[in-house]
Amino acid sequence: xxxxxxxxxxxxxxxxxxxxxxxxxxxxxxxxxxxxxxxxxxxxxxxxxxxxxxxxxxxxxxxxxxxxxxxxxxxxxxxxxxxxxxxxxxxxxxxxxxxxxxxxxxxxxxxxxxxxxxxxxxxxxxxxxxxxxxxxxxxxxxxxxxxxxxxxxxxxxxxxxxxxxxxxxxxxxxxxxxxxxxxxxxxxxxxxxxxxxxxxxxxxxxxxxxxxxxxxxxxxxxxxxxxxxxxxxxxxxxxxxxxxxxxxxxxxxxxxxxxxxxxxxxxxxxxxxxxxxxxxxxxxxxxxxxxxxxxxxxxxxxxxxxxxxxxxxxxxxxxxxxxxxxxxxxxxxxxxxxxxxxxxxxxxxxxxxxxxxxxxxxxxxxxxxxxxxxxxxxxxxxxxxxxxxxxxxxxxxxxxxxxxxxxxxxxxxxxxxxxxxxxxxxxxxxxxxxxxxxxxxxxxxxxxxxxxxxxxxxxxxxxxxx
Length: 466
Known about the structure:
Radius of gyration: 52 Å
Structural class: mainly alpha
Shape: rod-shaped
Pfam family, one: Lig_chan
Keywords: Cell membrane, Disulfide bond, Glycoprotein, Ion channel, Ion transport, Ligand-gated ion channel, Membrane, Receptor, Transmembrane, Transmembrane helix, Transport
Site (Interaction with the cone snail toxin Con-ikot-ikot): 155
Subcellular location: Cell membrane
Family: Belongs to the glutamate-gated ion channel (TC 1.A.10.1) family.
């Protein structure tokens, strides 16, 4: 478990867990608030409920559990077979999360491999019984000083004969030669007096002493036999050892031989990744969440506009069907109405006389084109082809035949023209489309009630409002 957690620091693990939960919640919220889903366009198509190939489905939005499953599935590379985000904003965040997971997984895998490969203890010599000294290889050499106590030690012991034969070709006369050979790398190890080796290791930080002591022999002071100074010197050495003077002398002249204390580097291990090293990808995730939120706002506005247009369309279809039913009802009532009840003779004669006079007057009017034109009612043919000028049509609110009142407004064509001027570096001309009527749309108002009847759109077909 420690090796699994070791490539990343705890702060990065906690931040990664927080990012997983935050991205899952954000995807759920973005998909919940978005008005678009997979069957958005299918719901606008009239489908026969009795169709055997049509199956009614419930809301297809991603639930919270499915959103968390998607986030964890992408992170653990387990394959996402369940529902994926449906809305455009949630899908953008999903793509950003996939990029984040790719970078995080690659960094974690590389650092874990470095820990597994480089996390090996440093191998050093353990003493004269080390296998590399007892069974030396051709690339490793060691030596001692000729005709010294150490040289005689290896020569006397039969079990060290292999080492003695290996040392024969590399032994030196002066310890300084061996120290120089150690520094330039021509000699792998130098076996000699421990006190002198400690002194040289403190002077040269490149050198180190390894292994346990062997062939112990103490230092002594030479005196004549039965010398009167023997007990005094012996007692003096014992007193120095008891009061710690020997240790202080050793620390001063042996351990303190170097000008500066040696700082030995420990075994290097790969650096653990922290939040500082991976903060850029978390900024990427934060940017993805922000972009997803912005697109969600646009989706909500567009969906609201589509619902309003759909509601107006349904309202117009409802009114059209109602007017068609009323017209058909009037025609049927006129055809099925009973004949008029006969009246008295005098009334019929008078009505007949009036009808004769009316027939004569009608014949006279038909012969006179001026009278016939005045007698016919004046009808308006509605014109819904809205332009920059006023048109004649019926107002859907006040039900009057009116002549519209156009007014110039800034439309989509104006914004496109401004953007074109900016992209082609015509910045001084960019504000002109906002003030010229040649780039403007026209809204047609009803002069009676002020209702917006229609709109002339440049670059698009005219639009009629119910």
